[in-house]
Amino acid sequence: KNRVNRGIFDLMTSAGRNPNRAYDEMIDVDPVTRSQVASFDSAFGQITNGARNLTTAVFLPQVLFAQIPEFVQVLSTVGGGNVRFWNENFSIINDLRRASKSGKFDTQTAEDMVYVAGIDPTNSMFRFDRPDLNMRAEGNSLAAKFYNFSGAVRDKMMGLNLLKPITMQMRALTYRRSVANLYKSANGEATPFDEYDLGVVMNLPEGPQRDLAFDLIKRFAEVDADTGAVRSLRTDLWHDVGESASLLADDLELRLNEFAHRLVQESSMGMSPAMLQGGLMKYFTQFMTYSLNAFEKQAVPLNARVRSGNAEKARMILYGGLGA
């Protein structure tokens, strides 16, 4: 249900429809979720959100520097790989660009980036495809026109600060390194993944479920014979093994998707602080939004990692991000 709802929301809001219109088509949307965008329907909400768009547009060129500590956290969590791995990672954008034109994927990695990691190749590689940036206010009121104008300005500045390609590179890094770490773990090799990454993030606690996953990974993973790079876990083939393997494939794909979108922070994934749900507070906290969201989405998992018994890695991730 969550995956269907996410697809409906992305499709409709990317087409410029109001979120409430998307919620009408989604399955069992709770009142709390609806209340988060209620302010957008009012003239006051459109004006405050429009003002936020314009002031954020001025601030956006500086956002590039915020990617540095996030990049360090990604490296601390999943590892960096070798030079050959990075060369392949830079080719991902070109693979996706070709796929968007031809409708065909040159590599299994590029196909997984779309269907598992959730990167949409049909959007511009430089215009960030966050649904709320493309959203238009409906109607011809002055407030709606002001919001739509401010949204266009903000969207243009988002494309100029290179945030989209940098974020895509980090998301590709997170996904590909996660796949490589799972393959190494299945074959008994040392990886940056600890028990928290396997048991909580990937939902593979010690026991039959992890044993099954490791067996399927060893059987179906696609590995480059020359470089040893893990191209894909080929979870699409797990569905032919049996019901348990099919359910495990669906769950692992979802976990990989959410991990790539949480570690490389995205506002539409995970929980945001309650104070950021209203238009007025969004306006007054706009330059703190990234840090406030980061506390909720990064510090909470770090605390969970400490509680799982690996305080050393949690400190490495935290201090690495703060140091950068």
Topology:
Blueprint: H1 2-14, H2 19-25, H3 31-35, H4 43-59, H5 67-78, H6 83-102, H7 108-115, H8 131-134, H9 142-160, H10 163-186, H11 195-201, H12 208-220, E1 222-223, E2 230-232, H13 243-263, H14 279-284, H15 289-307, H16 311-323
Antiparallel strand pairs: 1-2
What does this structure look like?
The protein is mainly α and about 325 residues long. It contains 16 helices and 2 strands. It has helices at about 1-15, 20-25, 30-35, 45-60, 65-80, 85-100, 110-115, 130-135, 140-160, 165-185, 195-200, 210-220, 245-265, 280-285, 290-305, 310-324; strands at about 220-225, 230. Strands 1-2 form a two-stranded antiparallel ribbon. Strand 1 (about 220-225) and strand 2 (about 230) form a beta hairpin. Helix 5 (about 65-80) packs antiparallel against helix 16 (about 310-324) and helix 10 (about 165-185) packs across helix 12. The longest helix has 24 residues, at about 165-185. It is globular. It starts with a helix and ends with a helix. Residues about 130-135 have low confidence and may be disordered.
Query: Which percent range describes the beta-strand content?
Result: under 5%
Strand order of the largest sheet: 1-2
Helix/strand order: HHHHHHHHHHHHEEHHHH
User: What composes the largest sheet?
Assistant: 2 strands, antiparallel
The number of helical segments is: 16
Q: What is Rg?
A: 20 Å
Estimate the mean pLDDT confidence: 75
Q: Which residues form runs of ≥5 with pLDDT under 50?
A: 128-133
Helix fraction by DSSP (H/I, runs of at least 4): 55-70%
Instruction: Choose one word for the global shape.
Output: globular
Question: Would you count the extended β strands for me?
Answer: 2
Structural class: mainly alpha
